Amino acid sequence: MIDPATLLEYQLRAFLLxxxxxxALVADRIFPAPxxxxxxxxxxxxxxxSTDRVYSDDGRSGLAGPVIQIDCWSDAPEYAGSYAKSxxxxxxxxxxxxxxxxxxxxxxxxxxxxxSENDLYEGQDRTRRVSVDYRIWHDEPxx
Length: 143
What we know:
With 143 residues, the protein is of the alpha+beta class. Helix content is 23%, strand content 45%. A hairpin with a 2-residue loop joins β2 (43-56) and β3. The relative contact order is 0.21.
């Protein structure tokens, strides 16, 4: 059985909740994707898109670099949301994550970089979304 505390996604959420500017904007509304239906806005949802692992002649090195997509959501303007709110949340997260090195709980983070950024409008429900992909290089436990 996997201990959730050893999962990168679990520690990512915990780290984001420690960032005062992020917490001020979304409180604790940071979810693994998809966010709960009818969750209050604004909110953040995240998901693992892919993972690269580094290997050597001796086998796996224990270094992994998943790409985690972080989506910052805001309601449509008629519901007090705005494109600017989504951008503000994304910027607060970027300032906390980009180039981070250190510990997230038991996980040693080697480096965090941005691989892509997109601004999106969801026409069906008229929400705004800023989507940023982060490459998070970290040490994996050796088994």
